[in-house]
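RECORD TYPE: inverse folding
INPUT: structure tokens
STRUCTURE:
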């Protein structure tokens, strides 16, 4: 795994006065890890959306679960909750497991170009006319000029060429030349600098007056070239000392920074490895305490068999007499039976949880809006009347399964369900209405809560059957494994549409 530190929501955190939390994400089963510093006020849905955009995966294909560290949460993290709602404080460190639901892309159908294309073009006067373009199919295969594929949306683009020449750009700038005017006049002048001088020595025929000559003594002693070289050497040594000191201090700061970065990286790696090991340990403990999948129960059965084998070998090699050995074997058999009963109870509980989660995913799939991909890569989301009805039925089913409701709230939910199913007249809806009336009568009589368990379970199952019937919920057609025939379901159709043989009559 690669460790990367990213800060999300910093400006919002400063405005709200909140803090940030270090979150270590571990993608399972690949085992890749990444650390992010996230604003504590962000919700799980916002974090999941950011991760899906960063990983370039489809929407709703990432699941976040099993939070550990400062706060522990052993289920799928709900999207509507924020990090602050889990009890996380600023500066805490937590770990979260990520699982990606991969899907297989369906191959696109081959496109067949027609023999003629009708194009609508607009002339310079703004009039629209239809132009027919006849397609000439080449005898030889056209050369492949390359192209590319958009990995995010799956759209394929190919390079193409045409015979039309490219439009030449006109040079709109005017041509400019250098010019000279006739009134310009050139002149040449010379001058003498004040530093130019000369001397004149006496000679035959020339008398030089020396009456005004003065001997000048220098105020400072003569400074020779050797003295100048010595001063340059001394100053060069001083400059070299300062430069070397500056380079040494810069190198020392660089080494200290590298050491601090290395120590921080090692500490982060150790913390990440510890979090990953802790997540794996907690996952293994969770698999044994609350198994859910077939692999979890296989691990339990294998460990039980290994324990039984070791105990049997220990009893066989203990040297007990026949009576003590048989007593130890009976005790071992009793413990094994108890453990098998415990595993069976866990299997029943896991089956119920998996069934509830499967039903929830099915209802959410029916209530999701329709999504179409556009040519520019964007998507269009549309809620149809069928998806809206599926969403309403899902809400009613969730209301039926809610525990700890007051009598008034439960009666309100039952009344809405009764109004929904009474739109159809069949055996299924009549049975649902009968169960609703029976529960309402028991609620008015003040019966205890435990006496409603079987009745409410049967009512929920019948209403789920009502939701999964395409005649009542059109969105359920997509999830049908076998096509349904109208004449073969007398229990779900109005009596006016059922043939006589469908009612069991001769």
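DESIGNED SEQUENCE:
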């Amino acid at each position: 795994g690669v460790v990367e530190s990213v800060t999300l929501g910093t400006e919002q955190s400063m405005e709200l006065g909140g803090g940030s939390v270090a979150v270590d994400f571990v993608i399972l089963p690949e085992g890749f890890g990444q650390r992010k510093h996230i604003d504590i006020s962000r919700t799980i849905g916002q974090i999941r959306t950011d991760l899906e955009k960063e990983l370039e995966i489809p929407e709703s294909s990432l699941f976040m679960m099993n939070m550990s560290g400062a706060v522990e949460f052993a289920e799928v993290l709900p999207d509507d909750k924020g990090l602050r709602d889990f009890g996380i404080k600023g500066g805490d460190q937590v770990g979260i497991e990520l699982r990606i639901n991969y899907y297989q892309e369906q191959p696109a159908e081959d496109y067949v170009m027609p023999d003629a294309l009708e194009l609508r073009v607009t002339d310079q006067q703004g009039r629209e006319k239809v132009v027919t373009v006849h397609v000439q199919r080449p005898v030889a295969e056209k050369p492949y000029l390359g192209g590319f594929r958009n990995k995010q949306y799956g759209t394929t683009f190919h390079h193409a060429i045409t015979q039309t020449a490219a439009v030449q750009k006109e040079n709109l700038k005017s041509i400019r030349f250098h010019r000279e005017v006739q009134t310009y006049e050139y002149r040449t002048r010379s001058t003498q600098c004040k530093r130019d001088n000369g001397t004149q020595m006496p000679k035959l025929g020339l008398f030089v007056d020396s009456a005004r000559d003065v001997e000048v003594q220098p105020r400072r002693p003569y400074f020779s070239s050797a003295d100048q070289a010595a001063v340059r050497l001394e100053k060069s040594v001083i400059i070299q000392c300062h430069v070397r000191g500056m380079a040494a201090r810069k190198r020392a700061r660089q080494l200290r920074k590298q050491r601090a970065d290395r120590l921080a990286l090692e500490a982060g790696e150790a913390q990440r490895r510890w979090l990953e090991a802790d997540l794996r340990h907690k996952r293994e403990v969770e698999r044994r305490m609350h198994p859910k999948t077939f692999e979890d129960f296989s691990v339990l059965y294998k460990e039980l068999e290994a324990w039984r084998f070791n105990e049997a070998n220990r009893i066989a090699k203990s040297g007990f007499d026949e009576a003590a050995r048989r007593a130890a074997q009976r005790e071992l058999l009793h413990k094994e039976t108890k453990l098998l009963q415990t595993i069976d109870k866990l299997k029943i509980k896991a089956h119920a949880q998996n069934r509830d989660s499967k039903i929830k995913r099915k209802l959410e799939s029916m209530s999701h809006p329709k999504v179409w991909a556009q040519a520019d890569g964007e998507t269009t989301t549309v809620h149809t009347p069928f998806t809206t009805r599926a969403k309403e039925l899902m809400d009613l089913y969730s209301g039926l399964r809610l525990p700890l409701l007051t009598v008034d709230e439960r009666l309100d939910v039952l009344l809405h369900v009764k109004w929904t199913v009474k739109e159809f007249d069949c055996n299924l809806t009549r049975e649902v209405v009968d169960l609703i009336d029976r529960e309402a009568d028991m609620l008015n009589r003040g019966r205890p809560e435990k006496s409603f368990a079987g009745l409410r379970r049967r009512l929920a199952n019948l209403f789920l059957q009502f939701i999964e019937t395409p005649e009542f919920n059109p969105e359920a057609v997509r999830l049908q494994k076998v096509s349904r025939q109208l004449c073969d379901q007398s229990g779900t159709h109005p009596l006016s549409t059922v043939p006589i043989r469908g009612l069991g009559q001769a």
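NOTES: Residues 1-17, 492-506 have pLDDT under 50 and may be disordered.
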